[in-house]
Specification:
This protein has helices at 8-17, 22-29, 33-40, 48-58, 71-81, 93-102, 104-127, 140-150, 156-169, 176-188, 220-235, 237-246, 252-271, 274-283, 288-295, 299-306, and strands at residues 191-194, 203-206, 211-214, 319-325, 330-335, 363-369, 375-384, 396-404, 426-427, 451-453, 465-467. By secondary structure, it is α+β, with helices and mostly antiparallel strands. Among the domains are: 8-60, 434 Repressor (Amino-terminal Domain) (Orthogonal Bundle); 71-137, no CATH class; 317-431, 2-Layer Sandwich (Beta-Lactamase), CATH 3.30.450. A 6-stranded mixed beta sheet has the order 5-4-8-7-6-9, with helices on one face. Strands 1-3-2 form a 3-stranded mixed beta sheet, with helices on one face. Strand 2 (203-206) and strand 3 (211-214) form a beta hairpin. Helix 5 (71-81) packs across helix 7 (104-127) and helix 6 crosses helix 7. The two termini are 33 Å apart.
Length: 468
């Protein structure tokens, strides 16, 4: 794939959709009419500055203009190459672009090799170098995580099938629980009952009696999701099997984990059907609580679904989404934005996701800037999962959602924030091990590949000075 971008047909479609002449369209972009004409006829490539203007002035999702979005692969390569084993080599941005654009297969092979090296190193460190049986292969969950990463967290076959069924059931304009229960019984002869005392499963399907048993105290969003999940298991197994087999996983465990993830995907797409959900997100300016009320869903379901709006030609606002436990482990993650999550080590402690645990039931806003100068609107809130009475374990976690600042106007959470004030942005990073900020008071470890100087006669924020 060439590093130059020739997208004349798409430029012409955008201009004609805006009902503008070439002269008027060129004026809006600040370029000459002759340059626009050459772009539309694929005689000249599109520069990065023109793409930025196109995004800002016509609300175009740039990721929809290129064949492949290389930002995530570039981020992963940069992080891997920051490892001390590559101490003698630091690639430039241009070199990373050349690799991801011209040799994507090699880039992925390199990342796989580095991941295997990291896993073996961690095992050796924890076991003192003895008893290593693994050949450095990824775990089943790591393979599945990478699968969803590669498909951009969007599975077209399941998404469209779920949307079609939701349209038949008139979701969300009916009582979703009733619609799902009636469908399950009329189409599959499956009846629903609540679990009895002592049963701990969220959902259990008794094949012999065709009975779906749900936890007695499940909240409505969880109940709806579990019913939708059972529909996926009854109707989509063939499609799910084909998708999982095409992924060519290394192990049966990974394939089974992927199949479970695909059932979950269908369930989420059924209770939050693509086009009605995306339209509601736009109309309600991504107000999580209002969208949740509209679809009888949970905040987590809504936030997760926003990260899957990657349908070609109908993409939503590119967002990042993560779920984090109190120890800082990221248990769910996806980013359609430039912000990428660290594959190794903890997330930046200056990110507002960690602060959510200090303010239960509140939505915390943050304006943040990464070391490369990209700015984000970040929101986070703390949630707990409990389905019983007093004394029942209630896991607590935070969900985080955000977008690049150019999309902030589409979010109600940007209201009242001074987006133009550079001092309003908190400096955050991906992780300490690759963060370039030299004077961060929250730094946990020095960045890799940096030289440290310790002055016994001076102490600043950090006990050492960082230099390249």
């Amino acid at each position: 794939m060439s590093g130059k971008l020739f997208i004349g047909r798409k430029f012409r479609e955008i201009r004609e959709g805006a009902r503008l002449t070439q002269a008027a369209f060129a004026e809006r972009l600040g370029i000459s009419t002759s340059y626009l004409n050459q772009i539309e006829n694929n005689q000249r490539s599109v520069s990065a500055s023109v793409l930025v203007l196109l995004s800002e002035r016509f609300s175009i999702d740039l990721s929809s203009l290129s064949v492949n979005d290389n930002d995530r692969v570039m981020s992963m390569l940069a992080e891997a190459l920051a490892d001390t084993i590559f101490a003698s080599y630091t690639p430039s941005i241009q070199e990373l672009k050349l690799v991801t654009q011209n040799a994507p297969g090699f880039a992925q092979a390199f990342l796989n090799a580095h991941q295997a090296y990291r896993r073996n190193s961690e095992q050796l460190a924890s076991l003192g170098g003895h008893g290593i049986d693994s050949a450095g292969e990824p775990t089943a969950y790591e393979e599945v995580r990478d699968f969803f990463h590669v498909v951009d967290n969007y599975v077209h076959e399941l998404d469209t099938a779920a949307e079609s069924l939701a349209q038949r059931l008139n979701i969300p304009d009916v009582n979703v629980t009733t619609a799902l229960i009636n469908y399950l019984e009329s189409q599959h002869g499956v009846r629903l009952r609540q679990s009895g005392p002592g049963e701990v499963s969220l959902r259990r399907f008794d094949r012999a009696s065709r009975t779906l048993i749900l936890g007695q105290y499940l909240p409505t969003p969880t109940r709806n999701f579990q019913i939708a999940l059972q529909i996926a298991a009854l109707e989509q197994e063939e499609t799910i099997g084909i998708i999982a087999d095409k992924a060519t996983f290394r192990s049966t465990d990974a394939r089974n984990v992927c199949a479970a993830g695909l059932r979950n995907y269908f369930a989420g797409a059924l209770i939050l059907p693509y086009r009605p959900f995306m339209q509601s997100a736009r109309d309600l300016r991504h107000d999580l609580e209002l969208i949740a009320a509209r679809f009888e869903a949970s905040l987590e379901q809504v936030a997760h679904r926003l990260s899957t709006l990657q349908r070609p030609g109908q993409k939503g606002v590119p967002v990042f989404f993560a779920r984090i436990d109190r120890a800082g482990n990221i248990t769910k993650r996806h980013s359609a934005a430039k912000l990428q999550f660290a594959r190794y080590g903890a997330a930046c402690p200056l990110w507002n996701a960690h602060q959510a645990f200090e303010a239960p039931n509140q939505i915390i806003r943050q304006l943040a800037e990464t070391p490369d100068g990209v700015r984000f609107l970040c929101i986070a809130t703390e949630l707990s999962k409990g389905r019983g009475g007093f004394g029942t374990p209630r896991p607590r976690y935070a969900i985080a959602l955000g977008c690049e600042i150019s999309y902030a106007k589409d979010f109600v959470y940007a209201d009242g924030l001074d987006l133009a004030n550079k001092n309003a942005y908190d400096p955050i990073g991906i992780s300490c091990r690759i963060c370039e900020r030299a004077n961060c008071s929250q730094r946990a470890v020095p960045p890799l590949k940096s030289k440290l100087t310790i002055d016994r006669d001076r102490r600043d924020v950090l006990p050492y000075e960082i230099s390249d």
